[in-house]
Amino acid sequence: MKRSAFVLVLLAAPILCAQKKNPPLKEAEIEVIDPAVRHEAGRITVDGRLKNVGEKPARKLAVFYEVLDSDRNVLTRQKGEIAEEELEPDQETEIHAQMHFHARAVHLRLSFEDGAGRELRGVNAGPFTIE
Q: What global pTM score does this model have?
């Protein structure tokens, strides 16, 4: 009896360990759709759409525009907001931004934060080449 219980514990141990390994990663919360980043008349112009692909609403969504050099070092980081107070799951909104062009600017990357200061994960958030 003792021996069968011991064998049963040995057989069950790998199964229990495998279940506790790593919890699944959460899905991204904000997806960037159809981004366009251009250099026009001494300014960087950004156009695109954002979609909340998470399960919760994104309240007071802030968009951070990070201008990067050729080595992808941040030259400047500027903050913008969306027009909607709350972006519901599966809802989309447009973004339009302009900022000063830096001589060494090559790429632009987006990041996101809600009104509580919580960083939101992004999909297809760059870096994008400035055309």
A: 0.75
